[in-house]
Amino acid sequence: MAKSLEGIRVLDLTQYLAGPQATLFLAGLGAEVIRIDNPGAKDPVADSPPYAGPKGVSFQKQTDDDIGIAYLKRARNKKSITLNIKDPRGRELFMRLVESSDVLVENFGPGVTKRLGIDYPSLKERRADLVYCAISSYGATGPDSDMKGYDAVVQAAAGLMNLTGFPDGPPIKAGSALGDSLGGTFAFGGIMTALFHRERTGEGQFIDISMADCLFSLIFDEPMDCYEELGLPERMGNRIMRLSPFNSYPAKDGWLIIATGTDIHWRDLLKAIGRGDLIGDPRYADMTGRLENNEEIDEIIAAWTKERETAEAVSRLRKGGVICGPVRNIRDILAWPHLRERGMIGELPHPRLGTVPGVHAQGFPFKLEKSPGGYERPAPLIGEHNAEILGGLLGIDLAELEQLKKGGIL
């Protein structure tokens, strides 16, 4: 079946994670995503550890075929050309690519695209209906728009770090790069919306994605500005401030999480752990009382869970209608039949070696009935598609391509 974005061409001027996440989703839906790499510089992800190659996984490059695992994941289904857009000849070739493309995605530092002459106003002159997406830490406007940032810095700035951890501990960043990955996901949504708008009106537009905006828009669903007035700590560990019990609990061989949201959930939990004697206890009868007695409730539940294996505890609780689940590590996740059946765990392909033994990659998360997406091709070698794109699309012959390469333009 045809994919939803077949026929859409995307110029990908992104690095690291936020931008490549957005273009990975586009590539998974069938867009022709063309990575544009600087011929005079190494890719900061493809040339960073850990590597995967013919001798396995390592922190040091062992062969010329060793490629960064993150690049192998993030560049699937994409094409790659090299082009020095700082050079006038390279920039003109780039402009010709713009004229035949639908979308451009970039995550350069502040002011870079304007200095290069490839900012949205400049490119709009070459293709009026271009969808141009700029991803940055703080956005294109505002007093902090000229500041650089990485994921952890954005997590700190937007408040996620201050919410993460336990009341008596320091602020902690999330275990995954949520600022980057959410920024890329929001960018994907913005691009899809802009393409829909263009389909209706014929108009292109500029999309301004701030990683800080994206992260804050999600975490501020919690009434953080009211915590002090309510006498709540800013960091609550694995609890949720409005629900009790809601926490992680120790088992003999691991951890599980138990979540209750109503009085009925609480009664089901008490029955499942053999504490029906507490049903109707005025200290715990409603959510307010349970929140006030969180510590006591957690002790009651932990006394039951710690005497059982995780699988046994989860099974008994679920049979009693309790919402719960194991805290899985990566070995557990890779063995989880549910994710495997849904195509979310696959082998990681290498452009020269085929699949890399023991290295896995995430599948495509959007499940579309009529036009399913997915990643069928491995990440490209840097510059692998120079002849196909610059020769086939722009009509540059092999002799000229060789001259451009010798001149440092390719």
What do these coordinates show?
- There is one protein chain.
- The chain is α/β, with parallel strands linked by helices.
- It folds into two domains: 274 residues, Rossmann fold; 86 residues, formyl-coa transferase, domain 3.
- The protein has 18 helices and 14 strands.
- Strand 1, helix 1 and strand 2 form a beta-alpha-beta unit.
- The longest helix is centred in the middle third of the chain and has 24 residues.
**Which outline best applies?**
elongated
Coarse structural class: alpha/beta
**Rg, Å, rounded:** 26 Å
- What is the distance, rounded to the nearest whole angstrom, between the alpha carbons of the first and last residues? 35 Å
Mean pLDDT, to the nearest integer, reads 96
Strand content: 15-25%
Largest sheet: 6 strands, parallel
Task: Give a concise summary.
This protein is α/β, with parallel strands linked by helices and about 400 residues long. It has helices spanning about 20-30, 70-75, 90-100, 110-115, 120-125, 150-160, 160-165, 180-200, 210-220, 225-230, 265-270, 285-290, 295-305, 310-320, 330-335, 335-340, 385-395, 400-405, and strands at about 10-15, 30-35, 50-55, 55-60, 65-70, 80, 105, 130-135, 205-210, 245-250, 255-260, 325, 345-350, 355-360.
Secondary-structure blueprint:
Layout: E1 9-13, H1 18-28, E2 32-37, E3 51-53, E4 56-58, E5 67-68, H2 69-74, E6 79-82, H3 88-99, E7 103-106, H4 112-116, H5 120-126, E8 131-136, H6 151-158, H7 160-163, H8 178-201, E9 205-210, H9 211-219, H10 227-230, E10 246-250, E11 255-259, H11 263-272, H12 287-292, H13 294-305, H14 310-319, E12 323-326, H15 330-334, H16 337-341, E13 345-350, E14 354-362, H17 386-393, H18 398-406
Parallel strand pairs: 1-2, 1-7, 2-6, 7-8, 8-9
Antiparallel strand pairs: 3-4, 3-5, 10-11, 11-12, 13-14
